[in-house]
Design the sequence.
């Protein structure tokens, strides 16, 4: 019965490691998504700051503002797909993390059951040994 307990304990260790890895991957996915979001926020902030000052302006400054806005818009569009992929990755990693945590909890419950069964088996053996002591055979007396 101890082999069953040992096997269950190994499974718990493996499931715990899998759960930690899944949590680490989730944290990495969230970090990359947050980095992309911060880039998008900076682009939006630059785009809102890039406004022509009221009053007299020359054509060169208006052309520069227009070109800068066009480039910022292009950069914003270019970050849309990576942001979407990062968000999808976060969702996948959340699902994976939840699944691995459930597997770990299931393995822990199985370990607890195996330990209880092992303890019951030991009690039964001890009770059986008390009720039925081992009698020496005729060859062992001499």
Sequence:
């Amino acid at each position: 019965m101890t082999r069953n307990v040992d096997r269950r304990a190994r499974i718990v260790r493996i499931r715990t490691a899998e759960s930690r890895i899944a949590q680490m991957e989730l944290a990495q996915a969230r970090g990359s998504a947050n980095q992309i979001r911060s880039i998008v926020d900076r682009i939006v902030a630059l785009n809102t700051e890039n406004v022509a000052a009221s009053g007299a302006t020359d054509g060169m400054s208006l052309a520069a503002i227009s070109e800068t806005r066009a480039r910022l818009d292009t950069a914003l569009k270019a970050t849309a797909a990576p942001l979407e992929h990062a968000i999808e990755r976060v969702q996948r990693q959340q699902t994976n993390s939840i699944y691995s945590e459930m597997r770990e909890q299931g393995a822990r419950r199985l370990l607890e059951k195996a330990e209880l069964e092992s303890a019951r088996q030991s009690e039964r053996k001890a009770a059986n040994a008390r009720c039925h002591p081992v009698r020496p055979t005729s060859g062992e007396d001499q």
The mean pLDDT is 88.
